[in-house]
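Consider the tokenized backbone below.
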């Protein structure tokens, strides 16, 4: 509980009248699959611990850490005025980990990109507590939403995100109608966008590891919009009726597909697409040459 202990320390030492923003990025549940036996043994009392038991133990340890932070907020008389946002950055990495959603981490399938989240705020009106929402919400929306919570009143410009607080806390219709999953031209072409109930994947849904040799990749896979379309790498789904992405409607709903393809082209021509960070491999940068540790300077090794 190294992270939660530090978070508790920050809370206990905080001046109560001053606002506080605490970003707490737990590493669980993530590789390496490790946790003290006391957590895993709750699910497997005897025998050599399985990976599944260790994962369950990691989740239990995470739950305990969140409880410790919550308890510290209550003891410091801060809980009633604190908004707790719990979220994940992507779906699970293991096959079928996100069932019934399709796909996993490092893909643009719903299983790789749609993750659970919740917001807890004791002062939220009771009629809006304990409810779920189907409104679109992108990770970039948290920035303007948190600013609004903090009382920031200046007009935000050049922003991709939307303030979603009234949607979350007061049941207003969500302001977002579209989102971009990804546009990636680093190793092979992938573009995915959603507008309303429709989702278009243009190119390869699954990602590639960044250690794949570039020359081999470029020779084997489509690299452009045109090449991806020529290879019939087009997937269109109605996520309202088919959230598991089982029925490809690309050839049945060509009008919708053309509209979404036009949106992707417009985004790519806008000049606002951030180039993916795919550094070239450097053998000497491997942490094994530094005692197994990732440390400052290793990434510049030749």
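A designed sequence for it:
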């Amino acid at each position: 509980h190294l992270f939660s202990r530090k978070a508790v320390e920050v809370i206990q030492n905080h001046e109560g009248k001053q606002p506080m923003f605490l970003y707490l990025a737990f590493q669980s549940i993530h590789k390496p699959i490790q946790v003290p036996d006391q957590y895993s043994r709750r699910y497997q009392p005897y025998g050599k611990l399985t990976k599944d038991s260790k994962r369950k133990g990691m989740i239990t340890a995470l739950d305990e850490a969140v409880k410790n932070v919550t308890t510290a907020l209550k003891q410091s008389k801060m809980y009633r005025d604190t908004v707790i946002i719990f979220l994940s950055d992507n779906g699970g990495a293991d096959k079928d980990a996100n069932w019934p959603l399709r796909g996993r981490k490092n893909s643009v399938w719903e299983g790789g990109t749609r993750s659970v989240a919740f917001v807890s705020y004791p002062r939220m009106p009771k009629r809006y507590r304990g409810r779920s929402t189907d409104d679109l919400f992108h990770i970039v929306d948290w920035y303007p939403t948190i600013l609004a919570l903090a009382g920031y009143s200046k007009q935000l410009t050049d922003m991709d995100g939307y303030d979603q607080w009234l949607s979350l806390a007061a049941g207003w219709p969500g302001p977002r109608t579209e989102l971009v999953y990804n546009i990636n031209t680093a190793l092979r072409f992938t573009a995915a966008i959603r507008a309303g109930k429709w989702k278009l994947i243009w190119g390869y849904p699954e990602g590639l590891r960044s250690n794949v040799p570039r020359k081999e990749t470029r020779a084997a896979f489509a690299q452009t919009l045109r090449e991806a379309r020529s290879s019939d790498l087009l997937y269109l789904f109605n996520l309202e009726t088919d959230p598991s992405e089982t029925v490809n409607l690309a050839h049945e709903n060509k009008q919708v597909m053309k509209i979404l393809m036009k949106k992707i082209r417009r985004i790519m021509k806008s000049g606002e697409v951030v180039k993916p960070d795919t550094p070239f491999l450097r053998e000497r940068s491997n942490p094994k040459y530094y005692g197994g540790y990732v440390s400052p300077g290793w990434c510049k090794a030749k």
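The first strand starts at residue 84 and ends at 87.
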